[in-house]
Amino acid sequence: MSQSGVSRSGKSPSGLGPIGSTFRSIRLAIKSVLPKTLFGRALMIIVMPLVLLQLVSAWIFYDRHWDTVTWRLATGVAGDIANTIEQLRRHPDEKDAILLTVKQNMELDAVLYPGEILANEQQEISGLLDTLLARAMDERVKRPFVIDSSSFRKQIVLNVQLKDAVLTVVVPGNRLFSSSTYIFILWMVGTSLVLFAIASIFMRNQVRPIRRLARAVESFGKGREPEKDFKPEGALEVRQAAHAFNLMSERIRRQIRQRTDMLSGVSHDLRTPLTRMKLQLAMLGDWPEAAELGANVVEMEKMIQDYLTFARGEGGEKSVECDLSELVSDLASKWQAGGIAIDCHVEGKIVTWLKPNAFRRCIDNLIANASRYGTQVWVQAGRRGASIEVLVDDNGPGIPEEEREDAFRPFYRLDRSRNPMTGGTGLGLSISRDVARTHGGDIILEDSPHGGLRARVRLPS
């Protein structure tokens, strides 16, 4: 039998195998470090090749330039020291003149200590400069030596064992250390920063139209008007997307206007015969049959109004910046004045963009629904992070969890009777959710801590 999770062939159950799994892990790792925004990802696309170019350039520089230059400088110093030792061997009586000439012409401060002997210890050589200098001394001088490079940028001290003395040579740092390294790094980093700044400016100009398009789409989704100066701009693909959005939004507005105009005509056509019926009933006098017919006519008027309100969805109203807390408090006060036991709590001043009449209808429907099934209503409003929430609670029987989503369906009533006085027209929650979604939010039904139903209205801040 094969091991759990791995087949006999060594491949994973997905069929990718070890190599495929490795690539998948690399892809997930890269995806996890990529920025989330388009601007950040675009900069990463520019920065990554730039960084790789710098790394390759630095590698080539240190592998070729630094090694070559340092080796040539080290061999030059070792050759001068070898020449000095040879001159001292040939002309031992002229050592002072030789050392003076070396200092003047070779920039080497050499001192001879007769009778001195270097310690018989193996010196540990580390670092590129010490390694190359030691190799050059072995090839050119071929005598025991000790290197002190503790302050190599200022000077390097070389102690060379001669036949009957120790020659101490102080080498200036500029003879072994090339400043071209720092110049190269400064130029490399400086040009990279300049290129990065220029790329950032260009990328920001390219991303700005996309951000404006995103804001326009978001505003349209919340029922607000896009920016007045919004127009297609930027790259060709961005302009095409913006133009398509403009056409789509105009078609949607045109359809809403046509639907509203049609429903206004239907409303007028339906109200006209109802008005004639009311006049005829008024002329019949106080007959019991006339009273029943009059109640039916009033009921029909209310049903028609609810149907038209649901179909219209308050689509023609403009969004304005208003105080949501004041709107909710005023609505609760009116219900309290009507004899409904309602407790309203608003957390500070909440100013946001709303369609006031539509949102008022939304909350009014929720309070009406709560007051119909409960004896006490609680209303709360406040900010929750990046959202605004309005909670409407009651202490009624609530709605079973499996029926809560169905409750938002048009004409759906928990009370199966067709009596509007007990079950309503079945449009209250539908109208409320339609209004909430027009504002870019939604309504969720939950269990209330007071034992009944909670309607949570969540809007974008």
Describe the structure.
The protein is α+β, with helices and mostly antiparallel strands and 461 residues long. The chain folds into four domains: 1-33, no CATH class; 38-220, no CATH class; 231-312, Helix Hairpins (Orthogonal Bundle), CATH 1.10.287.130; 318-460, Histidine kinase-like ATPase, C-terminal domain (Heat Shock Protein 90, 2-Layer Sandwich), CATH 3.30.565.10. 56% of the residues lie in helices and 15% in strands. The protein contains eleven helices and eleven strands. It has helices at residues 17-33, 38-90, 95-106, 128-140, 180-221, 236-283, 288-312, 324-337, 356-373, 420-423, 428-438; strands at 109-114, 145-148, 155-161, 165-172, 320-323, 342-346, 351-354, 377-384, 387-394, 442-447, 453-460. The strands form three sheets. A five-stranded mixed β-sheet has the order 6-8-9-11-10. It has a four-stranded antiparallel β-sheet with strand order 1-4-3-2. Strand 8 and strand 9 (387-394) form a beta hairpin. Helix 6 runs antiparallel to helix 7 (288-312). The longest helix is centred in the N-terminal third of the chain and has 53 residues, at 38-90. The radius of gyration is 44 Å and the shape is rod-shaped. The two termini are 58 Å apart. Pfam families: HAMP (PF00672), HATPase_c (PF02518), HisKA (PF00512). InterPro entries: 2C_sensor_his_kinase, HAMP_dom, HATPase_C_sf, HATPase_dom, His_kinase_dom, HisK_dim/P_dom, HisK_dim/P_sf, Sig_transdc_His_kin-like_C.
State the domain count: 4
The arrangement of helices and strands along the chain is HHHEHEEEHHHEHEEHEEHHEE
What is the makeup of the main sheet?
5 strands, mixed
In order across it, which strands form the biggest sheet? Answer: 6-8-9-11-10
**Uncertain ranges:** 1-19, 416-421
Average of the residue pLDDT scores? 78
Terminal CA distance reads: 58 Å
Keywords: ATP-binding, Cell inner membrane, Cell membrane, Kinase, Membrane, Nucleotide-binding, Phosphoprotein, Transferase, Transmembrane, Transmembrane helix, Two-component regulatory system
Catalytic activity: ATP + protein L-histidine = ADP + protein N-phospho-L-histidine
Membrane topology: Multi-pass membrane protein
Enzyme class: transferase
